[in-house]
Amino acid sequence: MPPEPADIFDQWASAVPTHGAPRGQTADSEAATMPDDAHDATTAAAATPADSIPATPATLRRAVQELLKQGMLERSAKPALFRHMATDTARINALLEPLDLTVRLDEHRGLAFVAIAATYQADDEDEDEWTHPLVRRQRLTQEQSLLLALLRREFLQREQESGLGVPVQLTVDHLLPQLEIYLGSTGSDMQERKRLLNLLDNLRGHGVVSEVDAQERFTIRPLIVHLANPENLQALLHSLREMQHARAAAAPGGEA
Question: What's this model's pTM, rounded to 2 decimal places?
Answer without folding.
Answer: 0.67
